[in-house]
Amino acid sequence: MIWLAGAFVALLWLVALHPGRRHVVAGIYLLAGPLYIGFLLAHTLALRDAGATEALGRNWLLLALAVAFATDTGAFFVGRTLGAHPMAPSISPGKTWEGSAGGLAFAIAAALVLGQILELEILIWQQVYIGAAVGILSQWGDLVESKLKRIGNLKDAGSIIPGHGGILDRLDSVVVSVPTVYYLVAVVFEP
Questions:
Q1: CA pair distance 122, 119, nearest whole angstrom
Q2: Of 181, 26, 152, 146, which Cα lies nearest the Cα of 75?
Q3: Nearest residue to 95 (alpha-carbon basis) of 103, 157, 168, 162
Q4: Which residue has the higher pLDDT, 16 or 122?
């Protein structure tokens, strides 16, 4: 109920302060943003509770976050070192196919290593599958967020973290990685 009241007030604010603009499109963005972020990040709680024990649930969440960060790190370093072929120059000019492959490789490696360290009790092929899924989808989430910035004519999504494009640039891969790991653990790999 509070969410609906907040959305109604936000829509009123939008109409009052932005006369003459395309209100339907602006309203869709206004409502879709919190749903996109809120719904997807709510999976962090579901993933934490997905384990048979509290420690296992925490470890699943750590895996999701660490593999997403490994993807970003691998894509960045491999792309800077070996990147020659732009992936989506109109959306994100700095991303390359080589960097994407590096991100995927880092994601799979991180999932394999963390699967053993965190004692997740899943098979090796499942660890590889999680690493590959997170490696691909977290990069997709990064491109979607970049596209949203291009649509809004924004260079950065905020200035909280200088030089990093804002807080959303740090969360864009996590936003899709956590639900990916949750559904793989809760639905696909469920014993």
A1: 8
A2: 146
A3: 103
A4: 122
The token pair at 167 is 């807080």
Q: Report the distance separating Cα 128 and Cα 111, nearest Å.
A: 7
Residue 173 tokens, joined = 């891969």
Task: Give the CA-trace dihedral at 116, 122, 126, 131, to 10 degrees.
Answer: -40
**Collapsed DSSP state (helix, strand, coil) of residue 7:** helix
- How many degrees, rounded to 5, is the angle at CA 87 between CA 84 and CA 92? 105
Report the distance separating Cα 165 and Cα 23, nearest Å.
27
pLDDT tens-place string over residues 21-39:
566 666 666 677 777 778 8
Provide the CA 50 distance to its chain's centre, in angstroms: 19
CA atoms of 180 and 27, how far apart (whole Å): 28
